[in-house]
Specification:
Strand order of the largest sheet: 1-7-6-5-4-3-2
Helix content: 25-40%
Number of domains: 1
Radius of gyration: 15 Å
CATH architecture: 2-Layer Sandwich
CATH superfamily: START domain
Amino acid sequence: MSASPRIAARTELLIRCTPAQVCRGFVEPDMLTKFWLSAASGPLELGATVHWSFMVEGAEVDTRTTALDVAKRIAWEWPDGTSAEVRIEPFRDDPGASHVTIEHVGFDGDLDDLIAAAVDSTPGFTLVLSNLKLLLETGTAGNLVRPSRGQLRADSASNAATRSVSS
């Protein structure tokens, strides 16, 4: 029996802030609720489970932090068996800027299902990263991550979390 191919949703952006500032954006509830979540039960800590409430009504999950290398790498598991990883690297041409990559992996199903899940996840994480960029670079989030007038429901924790779209 052959293993399923590794299909990943991936997005990346240059954010003109230090890796430590980017890391804080994903770790601290006071930052997460400015660009992605409506509530978080606590900061991300290695091995800890944190309850996240998303801007999509009814979308709530318990995530478990699987990696936390401050200002370099953050990873967590979603309840559906998928996982997300944020990698933060100083930008080579500007030490005050960061190259940030988010990768969502662990999708289940046949090849068509894997591809569909990755395609479905990518725009949501792109919006999350773009909203963080706006927040960190300007001091104001762009309201990019928010529910679209009742068109989404919380059918899958990671899908609802990544499909918060602007209307």
